[in-house]
Structure to design on (708 residues):
């Protein structure tokens, strides 16, 4: 079916669903719907297909009498089930502000990430409890786990603890796996009452102790695509390795403009270059030049379909899983110094207040002067006796202008209330065999801040420009925090001596809190608590405010090599600049962008979870040889099952409250735990001395006990 055929089918589907959802609609059979909607006999099969599809999507329900009703009219909803290791779970549904709690006895065989139909059983304010009515589809193609043989059969213990049951592997379904093998399992029978789910081993990844199997297991767990297909690689071979005169036609030539890339030392995909010029009137002209990836990745090409499916590059502790093949990301699309490259650029004139008083977005050809690193630029700007002064003497005045402009932009953002979170990410140092040898905090400096401010300025300028043109676009939206979570944050920081002023509607209240904590021992704790109270940023087809940046308009324009939303809007911008964005193309983008934004948001979350899991595994591996040692740390969280303690290098472990012999009183709201016999009271932020008692690589957990 061609695109027009799909559009006609989609239009009919919307009409049928709209008819069923109408407030005057009464549940009726398929033939009655056909009669009222005047569906010709020869098109009954289309109506039948549409109804079947709507039922599979959980939007309609077939009653016991064979009548069709909307799921919502029966107080039933479609959503995704998220399991927990303790059997209960939550369902998130479109349009619901809060997740619905599903008790362990009401899951009806649903497993983690299954798409389900559920109904609301009870409500308590904003909190609702429900039960699963039906599993529509399984959300996980395969589960990764460790095989354990028992006589002639076996079990697989899932790596992802959101799957609470071990998977029973009948005789003859193990592919010859032995104890300790990491395997992929497909589910052949879901859990029923007291019976475990059944499965079949489909692939053996290797033994748990084999080098590389640890990270490979996590890659498979998150279903991350490792290799590019032969079809994609063949298409990639058609892309030239250098640009031609024809490629440069109708582009502004910036090859004489002094510009640099500034990245980490190990970066290979350089997708942004910058230039700064001080104008005669005292203003600054900032140029942000972004690789024109859309010139090579054409819509609906095998390369585009693969990039759309991946959504983002994934940065794991020991490797990068790229969105695009290296021939592009490290080759023709990388802004390598001394080579002509195609770009989309945003040129901004910025005054002393940080306001963009003029801007231009255009296609360009550039040639980067030097490939700089954050380390070198930072040293040039902060060290009078820098060893790099002579080598970069010609560029040093521009770097100083960059720093001055960065200060102006940063001050402007602070005045409007933008929240600046200090990075507390762990950088895990691996040896040649992939074993962790050290854990340090990632440091930010003036050079990283320069690039951050310049990219934010470009993203805001591009987003606002295309918003006012009323062109279909992909925006980066960060919603206002929930009032309930905001109030919980206020309760948590109060015992630490901090006041959260104002309300949740304005980021200034967060900014002031972080300013209070700056330079104190609990600074990073306050940062983490503030982050936990916020919503997650996402991609949307409608413009929405970015709360954290205090931006009215925001998008991701600056990383098309590694993020599909950036590539998508580059394609739209290029069509607009070329004058080919006509009504039909506008309609095309209006239809595809909501789904594209949703998929990109989901893939971003998947990548973040995989990155977090690989970090957790390597941190646990680093700590497993330190069992018995004592450490200084601080209380980072208190829950019903344990007191969490974080060490200075960001390693976090838990002191179990289930194993304690002392009686204790717990106040989860204020995160305070008091022990009766010792009289000791612990609250969030307290300095403590702990002893490492256990490390589990399988569950990626670290267990402490108090050393006092």
């Amino acid at each position: 079916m061609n695109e027009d055929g799909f559009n006609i089918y989609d239009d009919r589907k919307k009409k049928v669903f709209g008819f069923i959802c109408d407030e005057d609609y009464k549940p009726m059979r398929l033939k009655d719907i056909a009669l009222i909607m005047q569906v010709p006999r020869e098109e009954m099969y289309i109506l039948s297909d549409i109804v079947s599809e709507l039922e599979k999507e959980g939007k309609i329900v077939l009653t016991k009498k064979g009548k069709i009703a909307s799921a919502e009219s029966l107080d039933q909803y479609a959503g995704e089930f998220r399991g927990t290791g303790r059997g209960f779970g939550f369902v998130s549904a479109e349009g619901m502000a809060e997740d619905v709690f599903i008790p362990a006895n009401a899951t009806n065989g649903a497993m983690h990430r299954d798409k389900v139909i559920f109904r609301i059983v009870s409500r308590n304010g904003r909190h609702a409890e429900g039960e699963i009515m039906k599993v529509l589809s399984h959300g996980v193609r395969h589960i990764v786990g460790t095989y354990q043989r028992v006589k002639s059969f076996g079990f697989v213990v899932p790596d992802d603890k959101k799957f609470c049951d071990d998977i029973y592997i009948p005789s003859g379904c193990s592919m010859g796996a032995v104890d300790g093998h990491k395997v992929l399992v497909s589910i052949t029978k879901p859990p029923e009452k007291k019976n475990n789910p059944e499965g079949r081993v489909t692939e053996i990844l290797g033994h748990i102790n084999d080098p590389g199997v640890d990270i490979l297991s996590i890659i498979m767990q998150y279903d991350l695509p490792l290799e590019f297909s032969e079809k994609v690689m063949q298409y990639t071979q058609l892309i030239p390795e250098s640009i031609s005169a024809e490629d440069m036609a109708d582009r502004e030539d910036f090859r004489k403009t002094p510009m640099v890339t500034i990245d980490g030392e190990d970066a290979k995909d350089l997708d942004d270059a910058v230039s700064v010029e001080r104008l005669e009137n005292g203003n600054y002209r900032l140029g942000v030049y972004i690789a024109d990836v859309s010139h090579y990745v054409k819509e609906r090409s095998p390369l585009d379909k693969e990039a759309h499916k991946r959504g983002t590059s994934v940065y794991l502790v020991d490797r990068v899983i790229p969105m695009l093949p290296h021939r592009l990301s490290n080759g023709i699309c990388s802004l390598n110094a001394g080579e002509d490259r195609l770009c989309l650029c945003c040129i901004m004139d910025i005054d002393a207040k940080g306001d963009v008083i003029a801007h231009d977005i255009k296609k360009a050809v550039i040639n980067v002067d030097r490939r700089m690193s954050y380390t070198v630029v930072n040293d040039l700007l902060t060290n009078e006796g820098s060893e790099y002064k002579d080598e970069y003497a010609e560029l040093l005045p521009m770097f100083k202008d960059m720093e001055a402009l960065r200060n102006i932009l940063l001050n402007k953002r602070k005045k409007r209330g933008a929240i600046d979170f200090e990075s507390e990410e762990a950088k895990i140092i691996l040896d040649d065999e992939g074993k962790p040898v050290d854990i340090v905090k990632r440091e930010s400096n003036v050079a990283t801040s320069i690039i951050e401010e310049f990219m934010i300025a470009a993203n805001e300028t591009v987003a606002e420009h295309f918003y006012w043109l009323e062109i279909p676009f992909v925006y980066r939206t960060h919603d206002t925090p929930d009032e309930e979570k905001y109030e919980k944050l206020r309760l948590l920081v109060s015992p630490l001596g901090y006041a959260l002023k104002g309300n949740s509607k304005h980021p200034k209240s967060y900014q002031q809190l972080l300013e209070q904590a700056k330079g104190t021992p609990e600074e990073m704790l306050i940062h983490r608590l503030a982050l936990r109270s916020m919503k997650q940023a996402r991609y949307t087809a409608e413009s929405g405010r970015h709360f954290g940046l205090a931006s009215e308009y925001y998008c991701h324009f600056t990383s098309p090599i590694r993020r599909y939303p950036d590539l998508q809007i580059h394609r739209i911008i290029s069509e607009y600049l070329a004058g080919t964005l006509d009504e039909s193309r506008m309609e095309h983008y209006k239809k595809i962008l909501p789904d594209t934004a949703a998929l990109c948001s989901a893939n971003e979350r998947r990548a973040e979870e995989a990155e977090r899991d690989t970090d957790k595994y390597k941190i646990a591996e680093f700590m497993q040889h330190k069992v018995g040692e004592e450490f200084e740390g601080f209380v980072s969280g208190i829950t019903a099952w344990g007191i969490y303690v974080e060490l200075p290098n960001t390693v976090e472990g838990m002191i179990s409250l289930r194993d304690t012999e002392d009686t204790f009183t717990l106040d989860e709201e204020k995160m305070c735990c008091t022990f009766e016999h010792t009289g000791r009271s612990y609250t969030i932020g307290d300095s403590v001395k702990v002893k490492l008692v256990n490390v589990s690589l399988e569950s990626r957990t670290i267990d402490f006990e108090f050393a006092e």
